[in-house]
Amino acid sequence: MLDCGLDMTSTLNFLPLPLVQSPRLSKLPGWVLKDGSMFLDKELKECSGHVFVDSVPEFCLPETELLDLSTVDVILISNYHCMMALPYITEYTGFTGTVYATEPTVQIGRLLMEELVNSIERVPKAQSASMWKNKEVQRLLPAPLKDAVEVSMWRKCYTMPEVNAALSKIQLVGYSQKIELFGAVQVTPLSSGYALGSSNWIIQSHYEKVSYVSGSSLLTTHPQPMDQASLKNSDVLILTGLTQIPTANPDGMVGEFCSNLAMTVRNGGNVLVPCYPSGVIYDLLECLYQYIDSAGLSNVPFYFISPVANSSLEFSQIFAEWLCHNKQTKVYLPEPPFPHAELIQTNKLKHYPSIHGDFSNDFKQPCVVFTGHPSLRFGDVVHFMELWGKSSLNTVIFTEPDFSYLDALAPYQPLAMKCVYCPIDTRLNFIQVSKLLKEVQPLHVVCPEQYTQPPPTQSHRTDLMIDCQPPAMSYRRAEVLTLPYKRRYEKIEIMPDLADSLVPLEIKPGISLATVSAVLHTKDNKHLPPKPPQPPASKKRKRVSDDVPEGKSLKPLLSGSIPMDQFVQTLEKHGFSDVKVEDTAKGHIVLLQEAETLIQLEEDSTHIICDNDEPLRVKLRDLVLKFLQKF
Amino acid sequence: MFSWFFLLFCDVFLVFCDVSLLFCCCPGAGQDVGRSCILVSIAGKNVMLDCGMHMGYNDDRRFPDFSYITQNGRLTDFLDCVIISHFHLDHCGALPYFSEMVGYDGPIYMSHPTKAICPILLEDYRKITVDKKGETNFFTSQMIKDCMKKVVAVHLHQTVQVDEELEIKAYYAGHVLGAAMFQIKVGCESVVYTGDYNMTPDRHLGAAWIDKCRPDLLITESTYATTIRDSKRCRERDFLKKVHETVERGGKVLIPVFALGRAQELCILLETFWERMNLKAPIYFSTGLTEKANHYYKLFITWTNQKIRKTFVQRNMFEFKHIKAFDRAFADNPGPMVVFATPGMLHAGQSLQIFRKWAGNEKNMVIMPGYCVQGTVGHKILSGQRKLEMEGRQILEVKMQVEYMSFSAHADAKGIMQLIRQAEPRNVLLVHGEAKKMEFLRQKIEQEFHVSCFMPANGETTTILTNPSIPVDISLGLLKRETAIGAAPDAKKPKLMHGTLLMKDNSFRLVSPEQALKELGLAEHQLRFTCRVHIQDPRKEHETVLRVYNHLKGILKDYSVQHLPDGSITVESILIQATAHSEDQGTKVLLVSWTYQDEELGSYLTSLLKKGLPQSTP
């Protein structure tokens, strides 16, 4: 199984979870059906012209119905965003296999999960709505609730013990490490350049190579650059995790981010940046580190609020081996690879586990706050939205591309606060994809259906799709795809003792061959070195002609042709004095008159017709075989 | 053809060793420190393992003799790569000399922490040698920098493809920060070089680990070849007790250390002890390197042990509360104190200065936590010398207590055996140890594991014959067919396989005979036999046939015997037809016809039919 992501856009259908009792959110009117029935008013609330579920937020899981997950042996994780559904899989489906991921992926993945669990558990919600999920009821609801898919499969967030149990099933791997799976295939993670420890995977046997490219980036940010060379010679390349915002240029967005931030702060407003606790935030902090002095922002406090803020900042500094070259060299000095260490030291950046406690004492405005969750449905960000939403001086800047910012903002409308959308998605865009495909030249490309056609909202943009030869094969949710590839060879090893017994024969210049008869053992999917067949036990041998031959003993195929004259000479040499030769249309007939034996010689066949005289027949057989090559 | 085959099967390892085997005069301190430098030649690839220098010498003997490698010709042409196991100078000290002064431009592989720390130690060493001792003909700072540019850093477990055939892989060795063991592999032949390693986790590092990689040769260090060290806890308690006693009676404790490695472990030990006992005596760490060193530990925390890695966010073990930077003036301060000072063997620098100041007072103590090379002050005092001749013919009388405490993280005999058990090598080669002790270990290894064990002297070449198997591509068609033919569907049962090995250029492919013929553009030659078998049977032909059919059916239970409508019988693909004898109606002639591929069955059938049919068939 490749990756294990969690669809969190489902949470957009839920009401935000405020940290501090919010009078606005607690007094929302219940939603009433057109016919006036009120039975859903406890579960659904109307807010800013939209209907939201008033319940603990739920997530949409990967498909688990279609296949029996206990038959999955291995899960390969490509980056920390793609493992958020792991606890659901490892703890509830009977999955007993192994999960492979790099160390930064696991550590940062743990932080993301921890933050998620923490921000949801911190605000206990009494009710868990389920009535609206009834198919009959859902049909009556307004969009987007009406169109939400697989709502019955939506699940509440997991707990910390489940996270720990899931993570304990992960086996840590390093880039370019070759991992043998059951002797059948070898998997290797490669740097994908998207995030700390993010990887593409190569799944290969001796002759087949499948590359799984997911969430890769060719841009220079903090992680190690993408390893493209190792993807070459793939038979199949599975391509997914492309940029969600193909039209936005990340560099431009960062510039816009900085200027909007500076403008707001200069005007005395506050800036809110809803973000994940790891990833792009490191790059943003690095940009700001270079920017704040020149922009005259050195006295503006930057706050990073997350239950895992400290861990995230600390962890980022110890994964030097997974960072880009520049950052690696810094560690050799030795200096921390990320400049946010200096921001913290100089008190420009402060981090807090939550808005409660120390933060409320230190809090100074105007300021810049980085906090989660980007969906604006839970986490400390909800508080800041409520707090700052009413003033047009303030700005919220969206940088994470996972959620539509309009949907995210829906329950907060009407807003006086400025909203700026600067999605920073460093993953591959379509131009980079075609460059990459040209570079690595896979035989076949497999990708989700969405990538093979222009986005539905911009159907004229034919440049926003994958263009390659042969055309990419696409797949849809719950579809089975057969790959047009046939295995032909496997590798075995021939041990010296067997090799010694071989008699190679040069058939054509430069081509030799030898017939091999050997006993083949298969163990753990590996074909062990074949051994020369053991001669049958001597006891049996004596009566071998009396026994019914066991099974089918394999005789080699023959090839070649028999030269008439030499054959006759040989016969005569072996005591056949009355050889007579007749020509036929296709060859010759050799007659051994006394023995009443007939040998038909043709280009590609020899037929010995004789009386039941076994010694004679065997003798003739061996004479014929002398002229032929065995295969 | 045959000589070519011979070459293929008898590949040879050559291992040249350049490991000085040395001294042990101090009781209980039987270690040596040589210059580790091993040349391995495996399947035509030449790899140099470590490039150490000897700290006991100040002349040419300091560096390995690289003319061993190649007398004429450039090193770069001869060596495919150089691998450095860890940053100790006896493993990397000669590297700038080797790459910049002798001349080598190929790749040098080491772990990330080694790459970070190694140049600092080299520079430190260069300063002592050149600036303080005034030696010339030594490498320069620029040479160290240029040398480090040739270094490629490797991750743990990453398989690095040096070229198309040669690959190397690093394993965790636990000796110092960033210490690694390396597997060198060409085709199916492989060597594992351990460097220095430690099989028991300590306060800041984890234990060495390797998978069951079954190398043809394991080159292991054998510093503690015969020792089975007492438990670590005991040694730690002992150390703390001695330090504590000295401090209690107002004495000063000097601990000469190398900036990285043991120093950090001892700091963690003292730090926790001070905290627990609420001690007030100051602990100092000699300046410069050491603070920086702790910083390296912070940044490379992923290379430390599980416990430190888990807790580093809450409390970084390498941020010490009680340990402060040392200033030269502090040495004259009254009252107790503990000082960690470099270098570790008291041969120069700050540790020697402090030693000279404190040596005269019997209340003070010097604790040597590691090995000392002959010729150094450390070695002299450990071997019991109490009157030392210093520069300028001054005699220094040593009244302070001298303690030796082994904290160096090498594997002991138990650990070495454990590693051999883990890796399951076919041959073992012992290096970096003392001859007598190595001999004892050699016997033990040969007894317990039944593998050959070698211990070459310096400059000696060991040749190990390997028995490499030949990788062959087998066509899946053949493999599947053979699997299907196997009578019982028992996967564990060995199957007889028949195929044709095609050898073209350098590729070997095992394919089915049919495919081989097809690929070579040859037609199959069919060899067919038809035997006349005479049977006495007065009955009608079709009745005879029926009798034959029943007879065969009865005997050949595992075969498909069929009676065809046209009156013939088939057994598998063998055809039997009956005709009446042209002269004798009472004799029937059975024509049994088969191809060479059915030879055995055909031959069997004729002899069976020759014996006639059973007399009474109802």
UniProtKB/TrEMBL annotation, chain A:
Residues 281-409 form the Beta-Casp domain. Its main location: cytoplasm. Residues 522-555 are annotated as: Disordered. It comes from the Eukaryota. GO terms for cellular component: cytosol; INTAC complex; integrator complex; nucleoplasm. It is found in: Cytoplasm; Nucleus. Pfam families: Beta-Casp, IntS9_C, Lactamase_B_6. One of its GO terms (biological process) is RNA polymerase II transcription initiation surveillance. InterPro entries: Beta_Casp, Integrator_9su, IntS9-like_C, Metallo-B-lactamas, RibonucZ/Hydroxyglut_hydro. Belongs to the metallo-beta-lactamase superfamily. RNA-metabolizing metallo-beta-lactamase-like family. INTS9 subfamily. PANTHER family: INTEGRATOR COMPLEX SUBUNIT 9. This is Integrator complex subunit 9. It comes from Taeniopygia guttata. The gene is INTS9.
Automatic annotation (TrEMBL), chain B:
One of its GO terms (molecular function) is hydrolase activity. Keywords: Cytoplasm, Hydrolase, Metal-binding, Nucleus, Signal, Zinc. The keyword Signal applies. Residues 1-17 form the signal peptide. Pfam families: Beta-Casp, IntS11_C, Lactamase_B_6, RMMBL. Residues 34-251 form the Metallo-beta-lactamase domain. It is found in: Cytoplasm; Nucleus. InterPro entries: Beta_Casp (IPR022712), INTS11-like_MBL-fold (IPR041897), IntS11_C (IPR048662), MBL (IPR050698), Metallo-B-lactamas (IPR001279), RibonucZ/Hydroxyglut_hydro (IPR036866), RMMBL (IPR011108). Residues 263-381 form the Beta-Casp domain. It comes from the Eukaryota. One of its GO terms (cellular component) is cytoplasm. Its cofactor is Zn(2+). One of its GO terms (biological process) is snRNA processing. The keyword Hydrolase applies. Belongs to the metallo-beta-lactamase superfamily. RNA-metabolizing metallo-beta-lactamase-like family. INTS11 subfamily. This is Integrator complex subunit 11. The lineage of its organism: Eukaryota, Metazoa, Chordata, Craniata, Vertebrata. The gene is INTS11.
